[in-house]
Amino acid sequence: MKQKNLRMTQQTESGLNVEFVNLNSGRHISRQQAITQIKNGNPSYDGYHVVNNPKGPDFIRSNPDSKQGNNLE
């Protein structure tokens, strides 16, 4: 499995992650930019998938593995 390289840098008061940093490039990207990249199959984001939320905005979730320390915070 590819190393997870997104870290949340900004969230709303309700807890929605809205900005991330790509730890490999240092580039800050919005939630929508990250969602688009994941859906388009960008290999930089192989460790993530998009959750389609019928009651609100779609969000990003890291693919499950046995380690809790690498989950999006």
How would you characterize the overall build of this protein?
It is built from 1 helix and 5 strands. It is mainly beta. The protein has one domain (6-62).
Topology:
Layout: E1 6-11, E2 17-22, E3 28-30, H1 31-39, E4 48-51, E5 59-62
Antiparallel strand pairs: 1-2, 2-3, 4-5
What labels describe this entry?
single chain; 73 residues; mainly beta; three-stranded antiparallel beta sheet; two-stranded antiparallel ribbon; 1 helix; globular
How many structural domains are formed by the residues?
Answer: 1
Give the overall form: globular
Structural class: mainly beta
Q: Uncertain runs with pLDDT below 50, 5 residues or more?
A: none
Number of alpha- plus pi-helical segments: 1
- Proportion of residues in β-strands: 25-35%
Rg: 12 Å
Task: Please give the share of residues in helix.
Answer: 10-25%
Whole-number mean pLDDT:
88
Widest β-sheet, arrangement of strands: 1-2-3
Element order, helices and strands?
Answer: EEEHEE
Total DSSP E strands = 5
Largest sheet: 3 strands, antiparallel
Distance between the terminal alpha carbons, to the nearest Å? Answer: 19 Å
Short description, anyone?
With 73 residues, this protein is mainly β.
